[in-house]
Write a structure and sequence with these properties.
Helix content: 40-55%
Radius of gyration: 33 Å
Distance between the termini: 27 Å
Number of helices: 14
Strand content: 15-25%
Amino acid sequence: MTARKLGRLVAQNLGRNRKNFLFAGFGIVVGVSSFIFFIGLGSGIQRVVSTKIFPSEANRIQVVARKSGMGGAAPIPLDDAAIKRLEGIPGVAAVYPRMRLAVPATMALVGSHFPEEDLARVARLPGVSPDIVESIKRLDLWMEIMADGIDPRLVRSEVLFGPFADPAPGQPIPVLVSKRLVEIYNASFAEVRHLPVISEVLIPLVPSMPLTLNESYVNREASGPRRLVRVKLVGASQQAILGGLTLPLATVRALNREFAGDEAASTFDSAAVEAVSADKLTAIQADVAEAGFAIDASQQRMAESVALAVTLVMLGFSLISLTIVAVAAINIGHTFYMIIFERRHEIGLLRAVGASRSDIRAMIQGEAAIVGVVGGLAGLALGTAFCLLTDLMAGRLLPKFPFKPDHFFVYPWWMFGGGILLAVVFCLLGAFAPANRAARLDPSRALTGR
């Protein structure tokens, strides 16, 4: 039997038994649509994790000093000499050192101390109500501040509102805050306190804030002279410390030298090593280890742990989808057994006029494949529509929370092809045994009904 005749026969059979096939394909539609939904949701969550919560840097690694040297020797300090050594490793494009502020610091944000002209500028911003201004005036926060210093080259593209460099005497110190901290503040703290959200429009209008150095609310044993400085927010960065302020590296070195001595001003806590390309990182990591330093992969491990948890949940729901499709395949098998019983005379006639067993088997499997394609396409349409509806409702009905995405779903290209392939494969599996049974029918017994 030619492929054209076989295709025409398959189409005729589908038309005659469309009600049975529609019923049999319902489970396929449900299974594929749930597969699309869960894969799209899991991919969307993974995108938030990799781009907002734990942004990945394909061509950078964090280098720290080892806790103990080779063979129990003293660890090699991460100082200026070490930075030059790291810069000399083949494949390294730049090294950006980071230094912790070794002196305790506090900040008191008292709304009544804010200058009236600053409050007036905030009041004129679009969306700022009188209640928000009153909330700022009632603000009374006393905070212990963690801070570190970072190489300005690393954050050059994220500093939008003023120079990020060691300031002249008497000028406020430029600082950066973490984009993740801003997200948490905007989605939770600002909502509860009725404060304005921090945005790029608002950052230039944030007044300089007081920072008291060598003072601690936690450690009462801090001694020595205190110094009050002012800090000015100039941007938000993914590189900034999560729970504090990030200052220019030169400023932190000077403050550490002033309050903690030369050793605190000469030793870095870590350094971001940037490779000329991501494929050089493996060799660079080996050279870093040979030089006596370690790789800080804590951020990467946290990201991988969260991504693994999301993947496991997504796989669990995907298994539910596969179970639905498998049950549908069993239903398709029963449907074909029933159809074969009803068409046994027709199958016997086809065998009598020259159709081979492989022709009969191909006819049944062809019908199953078309049911799979149609069911898969319907499942894709239903699943995508449900994703879009859920995305719209979640965006409108869910309250604002940290890292809430604009869209909860991501649609990888393989998801659509995988959905159709899933439907076709399970339909073929469901029809495999009925097709073999139809192919083994004896023509004479099928025609005589014996």
